Amino acid sequence: MKKILLLLLFIPLMSIGQDDADRYKLYKTDNMWTFLKLDTATGKISQVQYSIEGNQFQVTINDNDYSATNEIEIGRYELYPTDNMYNFLMLDQIDGAVYQMQWSTNPDNRGTMFIYSNGIEDTESTKNLKKIFEELRLEREMDSINNANSIIKDSIN
Asked: What is the mean pLDDT of residues 128-149?
């Protein structure tokens, strides 16, 4: 039992390494109070607003894991500013996919859209793509749970 507890305590430490140092990046916008936080492994984006008057916040713009793989590739995604201060392009460094993302203080004006070679994807296709990404994310979580269970079983034996 003690072996299991020790193993469970050290599993999170084993997954944190020097490579994780650049997993998250902050990107400056033209708004002096607003930054974008990018998870470079998944493409998840948050809008971060700081303040000296106490009205700071962080809000999710995109909570989809676009990587669609079981392996974490830190540095996979990168943001590029456009001439429109509210829009950035996110590039998948591995497969070349491009996404348009828009930040805003108005929640209705925030979002991320996949850009096809012939234009931005229609709404129905976007819903299907989100469903596929969610299924892949759940698959990855189950794989992680199964791997942890296997490690625990091995430590018991």
From this structure: 68
